[in-house]
Amino acid sequence: MPDSKLTSPHSKTSPVLLPESFFTQVVPKIQDLAELKVVSYVAYIILRKQDPSTRHSESSVTYKQLKAEACRLSPELEEGTLRQALSSAVDHGALSRSTSNINEVPEDVYSLTFGSLQPPTINIFALYDQNIGIITPMIAEELKEAEKIYPLQWIEEAFKEAVVLNKRSWRYIARILERWASEGKDSGEYKRDTKEDGPDKYVKGRYGHLVKR
Questions:
Q1: Which of 55, 82, 130, 203 is deepest in the core (most CB within 10 A)?
Q2: Which of 112, 141, 167 is the last residue of a domain?
Q3: How many CB atoms lie within 10 A of CB 120?
Q4: Are 83 and 160 members of one domain?
């Protein structure tokens, strides 16, 4: 089942992804709408603070942060209702509560207890599907081989270069990756031994019909 999306009020095109476990583990335990809103807002704040470019993430929310968010999105969540909903969410196991000294002031901190909210890592198959099109069985095998040989960052950059130049084909992308591996990319880092696990694998193996020197 794919991740479900909640759209951020800041942008109609910026989805917030919730894992399946939110619906299978958390929602069945929730007793009322206020509790559901509070747990959703905790997930929303945590996801919004994550930075996919650096893989930096925060896994907790202070009461002060949650109160500000709840007041903005649901003005009817007064402090008494908010605290009761939080207490229920903790009792039902949807949230965990701890105390942290923030600027030398003790403050309640809430964390999620269900599955990871790390942003999904894009893979070579998603890149192909989004930028080129339908993945045939033969292409799928070649993508698997490329994923084993090259760093994901290289693969992402090769797809980006192909899209910018309007060369949307796996043949073109494979040639970019082969060139980087044989000649060195940028400063020449990640230059592999091509005898067994390098770009010659494309020429001598599965990719022989696609990549020619």
A1: 82
A2: 112
A3: 12
A4: no
Q: Which pair of tokens denotes residue 54?
A: 């650096």
Residue 62 has phi, psi (to 5 degrees) of: -80, 160
Contact, 16 vs 7, CB < 8 A?
yes
Which among 112, 140, 159 is the end of a domain?
Answer: 112
**CA 207/CA 175 separation, integer angstroms:** 10
* Cβ(179)–Cβ(188) below 8 Å: no
**Cα-Cα-Cα-Cα dihedral sign, residues 137, 144, 185, 191:** negative
- Per-residue confidence in pLDDT tens, the chain, 213 aa: 444 444 444 444 456 667 777 888 788 888 899 999 999 888 888 877 764 443 444 578 899 989 988 888 888 888 899 999 999 998 888 888 988 887 888 889 998 886 555 545 568 888 898 889 888 889 999 999 998 888 888 998 999 999 999 999 999 999 999 999 888 876 444 444 444 444 444 444 444 444 443
Q: Give the CATH number, domain containing residue 99.
A: 1.10.10
43, exposed or middle or buried, with CB in 10 Å at 0-12, 13-18, 19+? buried
- 119 domain residue, yes or no: no
The first and second tokens of residue 95, run together, are: 């949230």
